[in-house]
Design brief:
Strand order of the largest sheet: 1-4-13-6-7-8-9-15
Family: Belongs to the glycosyl hydrolase 16 family.
Shape: globular
Pfam families: Glyco_hydro_16, XET_C
Protein name: Xyloglucan endotransglucosylase/hydrolase
Function: Catalyzes xyloglucan endohydrolysis (XEH) and/or endotransglycosylation (XET). Cleaves and religates xyloglucan polymers, an essential constituent of the primary cell wall, and thereby participates in cell wall construction of growing tissues.
Number of domains: 1
CATH class: Mainly Beta
Order of helices and strands: HHEEEEEEEEEEEEEEHE
Subcellular location: Secreted, Cell wall; Secreted, Extracellular space, Apoplast
CATH topology: Jelly Rolls
Length: 293
């Protein structure tokens, strides 16, 4: 009951005050084909409502995915997704930004399926210069298979913020003063995919995909990108410092957002690489910052 009341209160605060780390206006959703193209297994993608809604299908033969046509240096990226319902163990629904070379930068949402009745796990990760191992995992405070929810990333020169329905669930600050690389000069494409990862996704690979439940379907709409488009080889965006997500109010979370972030940490976080002394006897330098402890 306490969790339900807090969720209601949280929704009221979002409606009443807005969220400084999210777009200052309602994102403009466009048809899938405006900004995206399928990447493989085209026959496993179905289009509805004039291309404003699509389904990705996973069967025992293949999954599928899509990517943005353009590459972007900074911006705000969001998607409305309805996850695979029922027994989804072994499946991964991914939504992420990634650059194109071996020392790549990456900003990951990975939704790890589970046995029927068990909650989804949302895993986030950040790669800089080809180095990842920055996983954090949370349970969601709702059933992500029943209706659409919004997952978004704000990326500027100061921070990367992961949002679920405008609630910040993670912040990765630019900690170059601590010797930590930060994504700033490699344009990234936006990707999404549905695929089988039963070697690791559910309980470390103990729970395998039940193919008798196939096909597995994830549904998408709200294909929103508001970023600085650049060539893959670009190192600098000519609008840098001029867009809404570059402005001072987006250099950090505000007090209400930090309260929401603390709520997620306290109630729903189940793994944080910053506190894993088995894998990392010495915490990563960025973990010294308050936002990752």
């Amino acid at each position: 009951m306490a969790s339900f009341l807090w969720t209601v209160c949280l929704s009221f605060l979002l409606l009443a005050s807005g969220s400084k780390g999210a777009a200052p206006r309602k994102p403009i959703d466009v048809p899938f084909g405006r900004n995206y193209v399928p990447t493989w297994a085209f026959d496993h993608i179905k289009y509805f409502n004039g291309g404003s809604e699509i389904q990705l299908t996973l069967d025992k033969y293949t999954g599928t995915g899509f990517q943005s046509k353009g590459s972007y240096l900074f911006g705000h990226f969001s998607m409305h997704i309805k996850m695979v319902p029922g027994d989804s163990a072994g499946t991964v629904t991914a939504f992420y930004l990634s650059s194109q070379n071996s020392e790549h930068d990456e900003i990951d949402f990975e939704f790890l399926g589970n046995r029927t009745g068990q909650p989804y796990i949302l895993q986030t990760n950040v790669f800089t210069g080809g180095k990842g191992d920055r996983e954090q995992r949370i349970y969601l405070w709702f059933d992500p298979t029943r209706e659409y929810h919004t997952y978004s990333a704000l990326w500027n020169i100061y921070q990367i913020v992961f949002f679920v329905d405008d609630v910040p669930i993670r912040v990765f600050k630019n900690s170059k003063d601590l010797g930590v690389r930060f994504p700033f000069n490699q344009p990234m494409k936006l990707y999404s995919s549905l695929w089988n990862a039963d070697d690791w996704a559910t309980r470390g690979g103990l729970e395998k995909t039940d193919w008798s439940k196939a096909p597995f379907i994830a549904t998408y709409k709200g294909f929103h990108i508001d970023g600085c488009e650049a060539s893959v080889n670009a190192k600098f965006c000519d609008t840098q410092g001029k867009r809404w997500w570059d402005q001072k109010e987006f250099q950090d979370l505000d007090a209400i957002q930090y309260q929401r972030l603390d709520w997620v940490r306290q109630k729903y976080t189940i793994y944080n690489y910053c506190t894993d002394r088995v894998r990392f006897p010495t915490a990563a330098p960025e973990c010294k910052q308050d936002h990752d402890i």
